Amino acid sequence: xxxxxxxxxxxxxxxxxxxxxxxxxxxxxxxxxxxxxxxxxxxxxxxxxxxxxxxxxxxxxxxxxxxxxxxxxxxxxxxxxxxxxxxxxxxxxxxxxxxxxxxxxxxxxxxxxxxxxxxxxxxxxxxxxxxxxxxxxxxxxxxxxxxxxxxxxxxxxxxxxxxxxxxxxxxxxxxxxxxxxxxxxxxxxxxxxxxxxxxxxxxxxxxxxxxxxxxxxxxxxxxxxxxxxxxxxxxxxxxxxxxxxxxxxxxxxxxxxxxxxxxxxxxxxxxxxxxxxxxxxxxxxxxxxxxxxxxxxxxxxxxxxxxxxxxxxxxxxxxxxxxxxx
Amino acid sequence: xxxxxxxxxxxxxxxxxxxxxxxxxxxxxxxxxxxxxxxxxxxxxxxxxxxxxxxxxxxxxxxxxxxxxxxxxxxxxxxxxxxxxxxxxxxxxxxxxxxxxxxxxxxxxxxxxxxxxxxxxxxxxxxxxxxxxxxxxxxxxxxxxxxxxxxxxxxxxxxxxxxxxxxxxxxxxxxxxxxxxxxxxxxxxxxxxxxxxxxxxxxxxxxxxxxxxxxxxxxxxxxxxxxxxxxxxxxxxxxxxxxxxxxxxxxxxxxxxxxxxxxxxxxxxxxxxxxxxxxxxxxxxxxxxxxxxxxxxxxxxxxxxxxxxxxxxxxxxxxxxxxxxxxxxxxxxxxxxxxxxxxxxxxxxxxxxxxxxxxxxxxxx
Lengths: 326, 365
Ligand SMILES: Cc1ncc(C[n+]2csc(CCOP(=O)(O)OP(=O)(O)O)c2C)c(N)n1
Ligand SMILES: [Mg+2]
Fold this sequence. Notes:
The structure holds two protein chains of two kinds.
Chain A: E1 3-4, H1 6-20, E2 24-28, H2 44-48, E3 53-55, H3 60-72, E4 76-80, H4 91-96, H5 101-104, E5 114-119, H6 134-138, E6 144-146, H7 151-163, E7 168-173, E8 182-183, E9 197-200, E10 205-209, H8 213-226, E11 231-235, E12 238-240, H9 244-254, E13 257-264, H10 269-280, E14 290-294, H11 302-308, H12 312-323
Parallel strand pairs in A: 2-3, 2-4, 4-5, 5-7, 6-7, 10-11, 10-13, 13-14
Antiparallel strand pairs in A: 1-8, 6-12, 9-11
Chain B: E1 12-13, H1 35-60, H2 74-82, E2 89-91, H3 97-102, H4 107-114, H5 138-153, E3 159-164, H6 171-183, E4 187-193, E5 196-197, E6 200-201, H7 213-217, E7 222-226, H8 230-245, E8 251-256, H9 275-282, H10 286-296, H11 302-329, H12 335-338, H13 347-357
Parallel strand pairs in B: 1-7, 2-3, 3-4, 4-8, 7-8
Antiparallel strand pairs in B: 5-6
Helix pairs in contact in B: 1-2, 1-10, 1-11, 2-8, 4-11, 5-6
Bound molecules: thiamine diphosphate and magnesium ion.
């Protein structure tokens, strides 16, 4: 069993599912011969041929629209958008069709498709390559938005996303594509969607996050531990729909919550979590809920991008503010 | 009974062949005899190539972010830029530097952009030109919109845009053709067909014999030219720009060229492209044939070439220094993230700005 990176886990999950299920096809720009610009589909076309791993013309509307068509006819297309910032043309097909085909046809037609996309900032990429717009997708009823934060979760959640009978937007935190290696068995075992993962147990404060921000949040938890503060860290993983039960249970225990995300604050997924906590756990809260987020600005070009992204320091600062309330 | 109700053809134009000889039997455009102009355009092609090489070197040594090279496209880009007037509007994609240099964009602006500094998009040159456009083909519709504005203003101005062979597969491009045809817009749509869209070869976009014929399908006069032949490319541009300016509507020009470089510095074309193809493309590249032609005509020689290369190296070096000065001695502040979001900054963004200033990034820029 090999130690693999997050991006290699994506490849492994794709290969596994293509092997198991002949209706799974990989569909996108540069996914074939080139193996994807981040190598997420490396070797797959060699292994499965060019009718399973399909290089498409440069056309995102076509990619999304055709996936709706293929999925409605029983295939399981796994599309790749080269970067999340190039998913915007797909909105019409995802929102008006993929997300509501089941509902519109009273279950007669369904849309078991996945759109994968490298997502988020922090790799000094060019303009439009660093957006974090999970909230955009999370807002639309009828589809799931899933974000892994480790090699094993990437493997298990991508398997689940492909097998899921409904559309899934699968956002891959490219900043941590190659950050850590983990031993991941190619067991074909999926991880559950719609479930949060508790990454670190704690009693004093709950830190809620997802994607690449898991890195800074775990560092912050460690920094807090050194001050004698016990932080629980939750990786939300499926940001739509959100497993509020796990988050509420944690906040009932700690009484304090800081939510961390890279995306802009306004109408971010953090706002939904905070609102649900206000709804369901307000009597357990000892302090206001704080959000540490990207700003409500355009994602800056790379010289300023680290000034934009939440840092360990910002998370610790927010935690300290919250901990001041007795 | 069946009858033909419409039929089409696509003409191809080449005046200067890869060996630098005028193609016999054709009516040679006047530009071929305008040695002063040709020398001046050749100088810009050369400057662009020297700049390009330097930009790649800067990226390789960590002084520049990802950079999209224009290597091999110089004739097409110079033809586009030099056929336009200042008051015309250019909506580029991301590698048409020579066209922009002609319009007054500075080399240091290009470096700022790829160097991760927004000031690059606030470039010198015409203030109404669009910034670089990474979301593929979207610029086609902005150019169509600009053309619509000029038409409604009743101004004799033209919008020019560029799209790649890959980008020509997107609806934005086809919708721009359609709009330009429906409203007879003063628009020139140039397809710079460099045979590759990252790793996807032209043949995988579709099986149409030409991309120009997409314009014909939409009702626009459309031709294909040798985009490595400055004379043909410029002749086609002149014709299209004049038609647009005179109210005769839009056209499509497919310029055939070749991407001699990797897609960007983040790409490694050896993974998907045979070296033999690249080697033979070098025989057709645009500077070589223009240099030969100018030499044959007695308007260029080795000494002039050496002097030009030295001059270009100096100018490029000065641009690099301007760039490095800007990012090191006068970097953009944290405030700059929040400025320009709106004319009237909303209160919550002001608050975020004050907060952000307490948490400057550590280490990494
Ligand atoms: C909408 C969109 N999809 C994908 C990309 C990623 N991407 C950047 S350049 C490129 C290929 C462009 O090829 P082409 O249009 O032929 O232009 P060239 O780069 O060859 O000049 C792709 C797929 C993008 N920038 N925008
Ligand atoms: Mg191309």
